[in-house]
Design a protein that fits this description.
mainly alpha; 260 residues; 0% strand
Amino acid sequence: MDFWVAAALDGGVHLVELLLAGLGVGTVFGIFGAGGSAFATPVLALMGVPGILAVASPLPAMVPAAFTGARRHVRNGTFDRRVALLAVAGGVPGTAIGALASSLLGGGKLLVLSGLMLVVVGVRVAWPDRRVDAAACTARCANPWLVAGGAFVVGLLTGLLANGGGFLLVPLFIVGFGLAASVAAGTSMVVVGALTIPTLVMHATLGHVDWPVAVAFGAGLIPGSMVGANLSARIPEVIARRAFGALLVTFAVVFLAFIA
């Protein structure tokens, strides 16, 4: 598959543009613990990268970006080790199945599905179900099968959409299991790093990764995630939750309108 990076005058995507885009996406990823690949795919598509390449090319940068950001959360104590281990155990098998299924869909369908998922998750995070009480969340979190099962479903979508899964894990941890936004963000970053590995292997094998795009985008994504992780500790939980949800919905609507 032809590489899509080229000089700006040749109609491709300039390396500097990719680096700056990665910096912006990485900052969002570091602040909210999610949105790395979820935002990266629409951003790359809007920059002109072909659909299937836009879907999978952000993956190589997600492993170091996730663990770079996670280090800050671990130091701050905003990290749930038990939930992370259960989520990895349930999510990894799902990613392999989802990645194989992605070959049945074209890049255009995957882009639309990515945008729709952003809308659904953004609405759920910004306006959570107030009928779910803390006791119910605690009970679900204490059940290892529910945690691993929820992560398995996220893994399926992660493999299918070729993203780290953070934009699904964060709302799952917050709404489903009652974790604080900061703890959900830190836990998500560690799980994302683990889920990205099998997802990357599968999509690279299928020829869905444009490595020059991946390297340039990752050069901005990794330092951006460090900046975002530092900023996240200074943002109140309620504000972070509402801001993340509103950002997901707004960006998704604009993206879907653009590709319609």
